[in-house]
Design brief:
alpha+beta; Beta-Lactamase; six-stranded antiparallel sheet; five-stranded antiparallel sheet; 13 helices; 40% helix; 22% strand
């Protein structure tokens, strides 16, 4: 790869990463929507392995995956595939240069390998030695803005012909995910309207994304008190004062247990010459009632400065969570979340 093409690949990877962060897809977490697409791909093509694979600038993330069902106690499989991969080392992520999907993303077009051994360029790929792949069909996964985010792919342990019907069917299957990306963009726009209400709140509010607590949103009071940081920055690294008082451990608890967790702590702030007492409430957030926890909403109140009752803080956080879930079901929020005064 030339220096020019290497730089182009690096820039494209950064663009994909930012887009995946915005969409909430920059992790290897399994997601039912993408698992279903992988299963449909496997069934349609009669393949024992299928994935919905997102790429950022550093790794591949298999948010959708279908593998052969594990054999039952009598040695039979739940579905007869006749072929079983060695899945002992399979995870939901891989290095950015592993397998054949990176070639699909780089060239921006479908890649059909009837027999990997017919291609000197591909036959030495680790995917062949690690999992015994002999044939592969990968289709670019394009979002509603025309950006290639990854692939929808299937693979087999035997040579086979990927005929036109299978190739076109895989393209159509990948296109069905356009609706998912459009929905996420619509939800983001509505969330921004919700966030606009919080900007005027007199107390710090922040919303983090994922188990690593990437900063999705922070209102003005949050920045003034604890420091202004870039969107999608890792919270623990960019907000060391809050990490030192155990706030991110509390957020971990909320994220993994699914329950709101309070924390009372004294912390130095940028807007006061002396440390202040804060009551933090970390509330897990879902984008719909059925979805997995996507982040944590943290509200920080100074009891003496804000003159509030803890019940008001809890009601505010619950109201915000309910409105997030209403957005996820396609419903418009009810009354806008009102913060205690």
């Amino acid at each position: 790869m030339t220096d020019s093409s290497s730089e182009q690949a690096r820039i494209a990877g950064k663009q994909r990463k930012l887009r995946l962060q915005v969409l909430g897809l920059d992790s290897a977490d399994a997601e039912a929507t993408f698992d279903r697409i992988a299963q449909l791909a496997a069934r349609f093509t009669q393949s024992p392995l299928a994935m919905v694979n997102f790429h950022n600038d550093q790794r591949q993330m298999f948010r959708g995956m279908y593998v052969p069902p594990a054999p039952s106690e009598d040695g039979t499989s739940g579905e007869s595939t006749g072929i079983v991969f060695d899945l002992s080392n399979v995870t939901r992520e891989a290095p950015i240069d592993y397998g054949f999907c990176p070639h699909v993303v780089a060239q921006g077009s479908q890649l059909a390998l009837d027999d990997v051994f017919d291609y000197p360029r591909f036959r030495g790929n680790p995917l062949v030695s690690d999992m015994g792949v002999r044939s592969y069909l990968g289709t670019p996964l394009v979002d509603n803005r025309g950006l290639i985010l990854g692939t929808v792919c299937v693979a087999d342990t035997k040579p086979r012909t990927w005929d036109r019907e299978l190739r076109e069917g895989m393209k159509e299957l990948a296109e069905t995910l356009l609706a998912e990306f459009k929905l996420r963009d619509s939800l983001l726009a509505q969330q921004q309207e919700l966030f606009a209400v919080f900007d005027g709140a007199p107390f710090p509010i922040m919303l983090t994304q994922g188990a690593d607590h990437l900063l999705r949103y922070a209102n003005r009071a949050q920045g003034e008190a604890f420091g202004k940081v870039n969107q999608f920055s890792p919270g623990r690294l960019v907000l060391p004062a809050l990490d030192a008082i155990g706030l991110f451990r509390t957020m971990d608890q909320a994220f993994h247990t699914g329950h709101p967790i309070p924390l009372a702590a004294t912390v130095a702030t940028y807007d006061r010459p002396y440390p202040q007492d804060f009551d933090f409430l970390c509330t897990p957030v879902r984008t719909s009632p059925e979805s997995a926890i996507s982040g944590v909403l943290t509200v920080a109140m100074n009891p003496s400065a804000h003159g509030y009752h803890s019940s008001e803080q809890q009601a505010f956080a619950q109201n915000v969570q309910q409105q997030f879930e209403q957005l996820g079901t396609g419903a418009l929020p009810g009354s806008v979340a009102q913060y205690p005064r």
